[in-house]
Task: structure prediction
Amino acid sequence: MKTDQLLVLLVLTIALWGCSSTPAGPYGYTASYFEARSLCDDASPADNQQIERFMQFYNQLNHAPVKQHIADIYAPDIYFNDTLVTLTSRDSLASHLQATADNLERMSVTLLDVLQPMTSEGREAAPQSQAIYLLWEMKAQFSLLGKKRLSHTLGISQLCFNDQGLVIFHQDFWDSSQGLDQHLPLLGPPTRWLRQHSTPH
Result:
């Protein structure tokens, strides 16, 4: 058995052992997501200006202090989850985003599409709110253990806005293993190995 296969086997064994000692759910962000979805029940439709402002905010994340602009984007009380953290206030989100920005050398977010729920008849859905889904491409450069890393990912943000045009609900759906985990010393090699060996040749 090759060294890289032994490494993957060791990591998987540790992961499975950890899973066996984890209490039964609910855990993670799934439960909090379903609890918070009611915030979208009274949401207002989003317009192009709100979407552009949202995208601009994230594109300048590593250039301007977050606290100067976040009040133009998010309401004081929110639900926010980026698959890494769950936050419920604008102030805590500002701290999280500022810490993220401080560790970035460069970042760009490109909007690829705007999706809205449709009914089975093809009309825009009324309830499940006025949620919109932004499909985006993100490129981020940062340093880890003295080396420059580039993260290139695709994701979707589910957003709901209040009647003042501020975000009250923000759920990201993206593959953190593609974006971050593959750059970590312990998780990176097995993550990349599994990706390479699960791809048809």
About this structure: The CA atoms of residues 25 and 31 lie 9 Å apart. The radius of gyration is 19 Å. The helical segments are 3-20, 30-36, 48-59, 66-69, 90-102, 176-179, 188-198. The chain is about 35% helix and 30% strand.
